[in-house]
Amino acid sequence: MNEIQKNSVIDEERARAFSRYEKLIIKRDQLEKEAEICEMLYYNEFGELSVDLFHKKIECISWKKIISYCQAAANTGQAVREDELDTYIGNSMKEYQEQLKNLIDMKNESENIRTSPIYIVEKSKRKYREIARMIHPDLHPEFADSTYFRNLWEAAAGAYRRNDLTRLEEIETLARAALLRRGGAADLPELSNIKDRISAVQNDINRITSTDPYLYKFLLDDPDAAADRKKDLETDLGEYTSYGLMLEGVLTEMMGREFVNAWKMKMQMD
After folding, report:
1. Which of 37, 48, 148, 196 is 20 to 30 A from 246, alpha carbon to alpha carbon?
2. In this structure, are 120 and 254 located in the same domain?
3. For the residues 110-129, what does the mean pLDDT come to?
4. Would you say residue 68 lies in a domain?
């Protein structure tokens, strides 16, 4: 095999590797979008129950921490200092409150979800693929320093998530015009360690398809499974409600009804 033939074989192998890399990147991005939609649909269906359940869990954790604090004070013969208890509970529950806020935001956002007509979804997918082949930053690191191409890609990704076909068509026009101004992009970009890149994207795909947001699709597509999930959430909510009342009773015996009522008001404000 002469040098020209060797170079031809190398170019073909490089083209095949790049094509596989390109297809995997587009598949990964599509799966990420699908997972986002599945998560929104899940919280559209179960968001209110999920928020109520998490709120009850937080309430039970708060009661347990207050009881523990008050018991520790009693064991040492000290009075409960309201300001210290406020600070302790506030700091202890900060992460849980942030999780609850994120859950409420997710529920509220899911209420605005709209299912696009299937032809719009498919056309948006095809248009996104075309744009990705032209300017996707993983495929075209030569654009890494270009604010214009970076902003164009971010706009394309956002439009794809919204199934905004009109905007995708506009972005495709802008991308083609920008590439023409640069003299086109006929040659494959230079990508180092393409085998490692392919492996990394495949790992991304495996991760996405094994996470809850993506797996929600199988739950939502099965009416029996969806009914079971709702029943499980309702059961958990009932159990945490009963547990919370029991903890509230324990604290009432320790500290009195007035103390408990004051804390219930604080919890409602949170």
Report:
1. 48
2. no
3. 75
4. yes
Q: For residues 252 and 260, is the Cβ–Cβ distance under 8 A?
A: yes
If you search the block for the tokens 């032809």, which residue do you land on? 119
By residue range, what is the domain housing residue 255? 17-113+202-270
Helical axes 3-75 vs 223-255, angle rounded to 10°: 30
Could you give the CA distance from residue 183 to residue 185 in angstroms, rounded to a whole number?
A: 7
Cα-based torsion angle of the residue sequence 219, 225, 230, 235 in order, rounded to the nearest 10 degrees:
-130
Are 42 and 66 a contacting pair, CB within 8 Å? no
| Rounded distance between C-alpha atoms, residue 238 and residue 66, angstroms | 22
Specify burial of residue 112 (Cβ count, 10 A radius: 0-12, 13-18, 19+).
Answer: exposed
Separation of alpha carbons 29 and 37, rounded Å? 13
Domain boundary among 137, 167, 190: 190
pLDDT of 172-203, one tens digit each?
988 888 888 877 554 556 667 888 989 999 99
| Amino acid sitting at position 9 | V
Helix (H) or strand (E) holding 111: none
8 Å CB contact between 181 and 159? no
Contact 62, 262 (CB under 8 A): no
Q: Select the more confidently predicted residue: 205 or 40.
A: 205
Q: Which of 190, 215, 236 is the last residue of a domain?
A: 190
Domain count, the chain: 2
C-beta atoms surrounding 95 within 10 Å: 9
Amino acid identity of residue 246, one-letter, is: M
> Do 66 and 151 reside in the same domain of the chain?
no
